Amino acid sequence: MAKSKQWESKKEQGTYFVLKFTVLMIKYLGRSASSAIVYIVIAYYFLSSPSARKASGQYLARISRVPEGKRALGGVITNGTIYRHLVSFGHSILDKLTTWQGDISLDACHQENRDLFDQRIADGKGGVWLVSHLGNMEACQALFHECREIPVTALVHTKHAEIFNQLIRDINPDNKVELLEVSEFDIKMALRLQEKISHGEFIFVAGDRTPVSGKDRVVEVPFLGDVAPFPYGPFMIASLLHCPVGSIFCLKNKKGFDLKFHDLQGLEGLNRRTREKAIEGAVVRFASLLESYCLKYPLQWFNFYDFWGDDELTKDEIIGDV
């Protein structure tokens, strides 16, 4: 375990410096030149990281078994398909930094069910939004640049959340998104989150990433033709905060982004007797939504490890968290 923690620390520090370098690259070279460099960097990564190639191939193989997914991928899975998947991830990092700078507006976003989001703002009750590693959630910040008075807290596993917060503030001092490290959900953390909700704030938490420790509880539900473990914790947090719960998916298209809002009912007003079943039902609904969008946007899911847990890949080999 000590070795795993040491590796995770180095990985996160390395990610920070990669992001910092990318920020400077975009600033001095521009987006077009930076996009071209991504192809070179990913080519090196593709050749030097067999674990990433394998994880990508496993996921894409599952997608290709479904006719809709196979059509979206353009046919049979090849090394070229895997390379395109990794390039998509590389470009998503550029998109993250672009949105942190406030350079993506609502004009670049096609929104489905936006009235749900607007209603949550109008109610002023705050809320939890379950997100995923599909697409680019930072692009949702375009919405919050329009509503700056509403802060957003993103719950993450990284131990270096404050370092990344500083990077975000350096890029854009007006940014209202805070990364909050949650390695353990205790009474102190629950009260802190409840206070944010009471002030009408929004909390974002990923519903498709089991913690690196592997100790937290999971819920096994159908996903892309097999049973996969989804984290129990994010849904439990949402149920304990007694606030509206929804999900947002942000997928890149040829012109900008598709923002899709969903109401994830059934997690409010629960007690100990009803919570268990309600959470399991919410996980099933979330996994079903995630699956439907994975099939339509197959190259945009950036969970680069053996999500189904059926071979030797471990979460120590994760890439994709930024």
Number of strands: 9
What summary fits the major beta sheet?
A: 7 strands, mixed
Order of helices and strands: HHHHHEHEHEHEHEEEHEEH
CATH 2nd-level architecture: 3-Layer(aba) Sandwich
Strand order of the largest sheet: 1-9-8-2-5-3-4
What is the third-level CATH name, the topology? Glycerol-3-phosphate (1)-acyltransferase
Radius of gyration: 19 Å
Number of helical regions: 11
Low-confidence stretches: 1-11, 312-320
Tell me what the structure shows.
The protein has 322 residues and is α/β, with parallel strands linked by helices. The chain has a single domain (2-317), classed as Glycerol-3-phosphate (1)-acyltransferase. It has helices at residues 2-29, 31-48, 50-64, 67-73, 79-100, 114-123, 141-146, 161-171, 187-198, 233-240, 272-296; strands at 109-112, 127-131, 152-156, 177-181, 202-206, 218-223, 226-231, 245-252, 257-263. The strands form 2 sheets. A 7-stranded mixed β-sheet has the order 1-9-8-2-5-3-4, with helices on both faces. A two-stranded antiparallel sheet has the order 6-7. It is globular and about 50 Å long. The model is unreliable at 1-11 and 312-320 (pLDDT under 50).
